[in-house]
Specification:
Layout: E1 2-8, H1 15-19, E2 27-31, E3 34-42, E4 47-56, H2 58-63, H3 91-100, H4 102-106, H5 113-116, E5 120-130, H6 135-142, E6 148-155, E7 165-177, H7 179-194, H8 204-217, H9 223-230, H10 235-245, H11 248-255, H12 263-286, E8 291-295, H13 301-306, E9 314-319, H14 322-332, H15 338-343, E10 344-348, E11 363-367, H16 378-389, E12 393-399, H17 426-440, E13 442-449, E14 460-467
Parallel strand pairs: 8-9, 8-11, 9-10, 11-12
Antiparallel strand pairs: 1-4, 1-5, 2-3, 3-4, 5-7, 6-7, 12-14, 13-14
């Protein structure tokens, strides 16, 4: 398997100093499962390419050297000798990256520290990355990190075209990024798409994930997918990761609600709310919104995230409950912080009636609100939001009814909250969202939030509506 990193621009050859690898001689590194080679296919001041070639010895894998009993895929039978591990970019490549380019990943570069801290024009090519025909997810994962994405796919067998496309692709990502960030992105995301780690997954994997991805994963729109796949869908570890990614004060606030809910259910709902708020903030960032209004803001959970981000210059919250707005003002400390008084506006209103104060914002957020409306009021809501207010972006989340069977405390035919008037399946939500988008001149993209069941989907569904130009 092969990874190449190409730097173009002035003094491109200086990337060799950041990698701590001599460009004038190939180097070999012995690993427990094979050998890694570093060499430079191209070297000039304008363009320099560094390559990491990993040669896995399948016999070593089959024999299982010391410690092999800790492997997730422990040696057993024919699979030890007949598998794709020596030929694809997998967790073996991630381990090689961390071993061979450890200093480069840390960002330490001594006299070249300024270069290490600078954005470089970098392109990485990852050969034979397993993605199991989910190529769209490659774009959804890498593009929010600032990369241009190119995917080269192949037939499973040119002699048998009916077999369809191969589950392996060659992936090229290109962007202006720091070298250490590029290496960390690849290091974390290769196992996400391969899904088959060759070593035991324990609590230290959460620390490893947060150490290498904590600065970008929190606001990534696909953080649920990334975290879940990286930790092999081990729920205790996934929950632990999310609890550390999301602010502690949001967690404490959720703990005070629904005292009659069993503790294990409360923890699961807490984690879901943390994921939901993080996904909304990430979506707003991707929209490049500068001004945001949260209609149905309640006690200001989302607002408290928004005020921490410099990107959001003008923030408003509206709710029918004056008491909830008072609580939001207290938690935001509006009376104590002068600059927040100018940045944040709270007012009482209803989203089923026209209100001129809704207008003028780049984005409107409707977070877990629509399901509290009577179906007879849905048309009024649509007109107020999509026809009258008509912002550039609308971000709306609502429960996925199909997932309710996963909650032990919800009886058959019941909703998640006593005040819910309805809850939509994924198909129902998509049908409504696409219909209203077509009617009022929007496009819509869907995503799911929370632990995803292959049949039932995830607990929360989100639509991001964009006004057509």
């Amino acid at each position: 398997m092969l990874l190449t990193i190409t730097c173009t621009g002035e003094n491109a050859s200086a990337i060799s100093f950041l990698l701590y690898k001599n460009p004038y001689r190939p180097q070999k590194f012995e690993l427990g499962y094979g050998s890694a080679y570093v060499f430079y296919p191209e070297l000039s001041d304008k363009k320099t390419a560094a390559a990491l070639l990993l040669d896995i010895n399948p016999v070593n894998l089959a024999r299982g050297k010391e410690g092999s009993s800790n492997f997730v895929c422990a040696p057993s039978g024919l699979f030890d000798y007949v598998n794709d591990r020596p030929y694809v970019s997998s967790s073996f490549m991630s381990v090689a990256i961390s071993s061979v380019f450890r200093t480069a990943m840390s960002g330490r570069a001594d006299e070249y520290q300024q270069l290490s801290d600078s954005l470089l024009n970098l392109e990485a090519v990852i050969t034979m990355l397993p993605c199991r025909s989910d190529t769209a997810m490659l774009n959804r994962v890498f593009e929010p990190l600032g990369y241009e994405v190119k995917i080269d796919s192949f037939n499973s067998d040119d002699n048998f075209p009916d077999w369809g496309e191969s589950k392996y692709v060659n992936l090229t990502i290109k962007g202006n990024v720091r070298l250490r960030d590029l290496l960390k992105h690849i290091y974390i995301l290769i196992p996400v798409f391969d899904k088959q780690k060759h070593y035991w997954i324990g609590k230290d994997e959460v620390d490893k994930l947060l150490r290498n991805a904590g600065d970008w994963l929190t606001n990534h729109p696909e953080k649920t997918f990334i975290t879940s796949r990286y930790l092999k869908r081990l729920n205790p570890l996934v929950n632990q990761a999310f609890e550390q990614l999301v602010a502690c004060d949001t967690q404490k606030e959720d703990n005070q609600e629904e005292d009659k809910t069993p503790q294990e259910i409360k923890e699961k709902r807490l984690t879901l709310n943390a994921q939901r708020l993080g996904s909304v903030v990430a979506a707003l960032k991707n929209c490049n919104a500068r001004s945001v209004i949260d209609i149905g803001c309640g006690e200001g959970n989302l607002l408290r995230f928004l005020v921490r981000e410099k990107q959001f210059e003008n923030i408003a919250g509206a709710d029918v409950s004056f008491l909830a707005l008072e609580r939001a003002a207290e938690k935001l400390k509006l009376s104590e912080t002068e600059y927040l008084k100018e940045k944040v506006n709270l007012f009482q209103s209803s989203l089923t009636y026209k209100d001129a104060r809704f207008k003028g914002y780049d984005a409107v957020c409707i977070i877990e609100v629509i399901e509290h409306l009577d179906l007879s009021r849905l048309n009024a809501f649509e007109r107020v939001l999509f026809e009258f207010t008509k912002p550039r972006f609308i971000i709306l989340t609502t429960p996925n009814r199909e997932y309710n069977v996963k909650y032990e405390y919800i009886s058959e035919g019941k909703f998640r909250h006593n005040d819910h008037r309805f809850e939509w399946t994924r198909e129902e939500f998509r049908s409504w969202a696409e219909k209203v988008s077509l009617k009022y001149g929007y496009t819509v993209k869907f995503s799911e939030i929370g632990e995803k069941d292959e049949v039932l989907g995830a607990s929360t569904q989100m639509g991001v509506f964009t006004l057509c130009a």
